[in-house]
Amino acid sequence: MIFYLNITSLKMMTMKHKPVLLDEVLTALNIKENGIYLDLTLGGGGHSFEILKQLNHSGFLFAFDQDLVAIKQANTKLKDFKNYKIFHTNFKFVTKYLNSENVSEVDGILLDLGMSSFQIDDSQRGFSYMQEGPLDMRMNTSNPLTVKAILNTYSLEQLTTIFKNYGQEPNSYKIAQQIIKNRPLSTTTDLVKITDLFPSKGHSAKRVFQALRIYLNDELTALKEVLPQAFSLLKQDGVLAVISFHSLEDKIVKEFFKEKVEERVIKGLPTLPEKMPMRYYRKKRIKPSATEIEKNPRASSAILRVALKN
After folding, report:
1. I need a labelling partner for 212 at 20 to 30 A (CA). Which of 45, 107, 235, 309 fits?
2. Which domains can be identified in the chain, with CATH numbers?
3. Is 206 helix (H, G, I), strand (E, B) or coil?
4. pTM score
5. Angstrom distance (rounded) from CA 120 to CA 129
6. Which ranges of the chain would DSSP assign to H, the alpha helix?
């Protein structure tokens, strides 16, 4: 499926997009004006724009995104800058693409794992349970698999596992049963009607949509693959900043940093001084301020974790 955006809708989406935890990210990255930086989740280009503003002609930004709509929007936002390059690919291939540019070290890396507002607000993408649209949810629209195909062809066991593992949905089995009984499903509304049959704490539709999106786009696997690459690419004192929006992502980031930062203690043996690969910028997670949440309610679940390479 090809998505067409007219200029009016693109302008509206640009106006709505607000980069999350912007001040906190820029402070943590401590931008060097001649440094090399990676924005591995370009989105609408909000964070990239602010990073580029702090770079001189010797500095450079490499950005990655698998969504062509996002790249089109970001290029519009970044049109006045010359010192950046965007790769249309999943960030898990970052090392491969930087090797093609003869780049082996960078000063800072940002991963903003949240979805852009324009992705959520575009009903034709199928990401939102709040409006009717096709059951798509592909970040990369060249992916042949869609959520519609998953819902209409996967087994009861497969669907239950997706909802349970990626959405932590307590009614996973019952929802999967109803999906199979009501096949074929065609729209997001079809799916919401089924989730509404099983009210529980929170919102089942939100959890089920999250689970399908994460599974379809293989988001957790990609995150696990990119973090070691990001660490390897950092220069000494280079900064890795990661914004996550749900507990599954945050757990992966937290455990990765913990392994790199905290000394391993074996019960019964003395703890020897050890030079750890990284150090915390701030050990506790960083949350948006009340002011930011008031201006941008979608920022409320954001968590920023930052570490530096030793």
Report:
1. 45
2. 7-118+219-309 (3.40.50.150), 144-216 (1.10.150.170)
3. helix
4. 0.90
5. 9
6. 7-16, 22-29, 46-53, 68-77, 94-100, 117-121, 147-153, 156-167, 172-181, 188-195, 204-216, 219-233, 247-261, 290-295
Answer positive or negative: Cα dihedral of 61, 94, 288, 11.
positive
Q: How far is CA 125 from CA 6, 209, 293, in A?
A: 15, 12, 25
Give Cβ neighbours of residue 77 (< 8 Å, ≥ 6 apart).
14, 44, 45, 46, 48, 49
Written as one string, the DSSP assignment of 130-172 is: TS--BS---SSTT-S--HHHHHHHS-HHHHHHHHHHHH--TTH
For 168: left if phi > 0, alpha if psi spans -120 to 50, otherwise beta; the answer is left
257 closest CA partner among 241, 237, 236: 241
Pairing mode, if any, of strands 106-112 and 278-280?
unpaired
Give every CB contact of residue 114 below 8 A, 6+ residues apart in sequence: 20, 243, 244, 245, 298, 302
Q: How far apart are CA 5 and CA 44, in angstroms?
A: 14
